[in-house]
Amino acid sequence: MALIDDFPPARKPKLAEMVVDALRKRASFGERPRNTSKGCGGVMRVAPVGLYCARLHEGMSADRIAKHALELGADTAALTHGHPTGQLAAGYVAALVALLALDLPLPDALDRAAALLDRGVDLALITDDTDAARAIAAHRGRFKVLIELDSGDRRAGVRAEGDVLLEIARILGDRFAGVMTHAGHSYGCRDIECVRQVAANERATVVKAAERLSSNGIACGVVSVGSTPTMTHADNLDGVTEARPGVYMFQDLFQAEIGSCSRDDIAVTVLASVIGRNELENRFLLDAGALALSKDRSTQATPHDAGYGEVWDMECKPAYGSCRIERAYQEHGVAVSDSPIDFRRIAVGTKVRVAPNHACITAAAYDRYYVVDGGTEIIAEWDRVNGW
């Protein structure tokens, strides 16, 4: 620990107290930590382990590299985290980083996609790359492929007026199915007129691409757009054959802030229990933290910062004032309010609902939805499709 203590105060690393404490308590190097921690600190520092193991690929199979990274990553976490769960999680992250860094050839991914087709899955591929298009065209899988266009988000996609669009379509041949775009930059809008302008440009981009392809003798069956804000406020969708908004199904606090919905439209919440109270500081503790809610802070950039989610009662009403999760730990959330909380309504064990900032990220933590309809009785369970 001399190295940590020798840092001048202005430069001392901001290490987690638990990590520093675990290192200080060791009698000798290699001794297991004297705690039962399974927190995220072990996971946060193992990416270099995965990258290191990926460099050992010569003469080793991907399976062996992943196994080596898993073992080394777990051992690295075990320096400060005594619980096997924390160690194993770190090992899996290290193995995942190693496999990603190996940059396995595209045909491996195409083989997996073809296997899904063989099982009857209706699957479309998306590309904006000529080399990827050649690999797809040469593969046995009878894929249908959309070319991604950039309509202003500058994340991915080719230009509707560029030569690459036509080149990719010709490479794909009869596997070319159409064009698509995603106006993700609509999330940056703070008024409806801005969203309408983005929506108009989104439509114009795909329609222009489809018209260019058609004028060059290439049929373009699918003309696809999609984002929840633009699909909510678009004035004109002429020429568009498909829309792919996602969060609109449930809506969330961020969409309410940018005008895609009202808070009454939000249809997904996280059920949580009060497990602690502090009346003096006007706050209470929930058993829902980062793992249950996510750490999305998208509403921070809007006029009404909801922290890590708004706390409602079981009837989905803001019964506790402007109550929000101000701090999210791994397993716990600290709820505060700008007005005095009526603690007569917040006993330990009280059930509350937390409305999410971003429904997609929050829902991804669960394997199913418990469905209610205007009350608290569960009337159905819907399985989720998870995994990437």
Features:
388 residues, alpha/beta, TIM Barrel, Lyase, Ornithine Decarboxylase, Chain A, domain 1, six-stranded antiparallel sheet
Topology, element by element:
Elements: H1 2-5, H2 17-24, H3 41-44, H4 47-54, H5 62-77, H6 84-101, H7 106-118, E1 124-127, H8 130-138, E2 144-148, H9 163-172, E3 176-180, H10 192-215, E4 222-225, H11 228-233, E5 242-243, H12 253-257, E6 270-278, E7 283-286, H13 290-293, E8 310-312, E9 323-328, E10 333-337, E11 351-355, H14 359-363, E12 368-371, E13 380-383
Parallel strand pairs: 1-2, 2-3, 3-4, 4-5
Antiparallel strand pairs: 6-7, 6-11, 7-10, 8-11, 9-10, 12-13
Helix pairs in contact: 4-5, 4-6, 5-6, 8-9
Give the SSE order as H and E letters: HHHHHHHEHEHEHEHEHEEHEEEEHEE
| DSSP strand tally | 13
Tell me the fraction of residues in β-strands, as a range.
15-25%
Compute the CA-based radius of gyration.
25 Å
At the first level of CATH, the class of the largest domain is Alpha Beta
What is the mean predicted local confidence, pLDDT?
Answer: 88
Question: What CATH architecture label of the largest domain applies?
Answer: Alpha-Beta Barrel
Mind summarizing the main beta sheet?
6 strands, antiparallel
Span between termini: 40 Å
Q: What proportion of the residues is helical, as a percent range?
A: 25-40%
CATH-assigned homologous superfamily of the largest domain? Alanine racemase
**Class per helix and strand makeup:** alpha/beta
Name the overall outline.
flat
The overall number of domains is 3
Low-confidence stretches: 1-15
Assembly state (oligomeric): single chain
Please state how the strands of the largest beta sheet are arranged side by side.
Answer: 8-11-6-7-10-9
CATH topology of the largest domain: TIM Barrel
| Tally of helical segments | 14
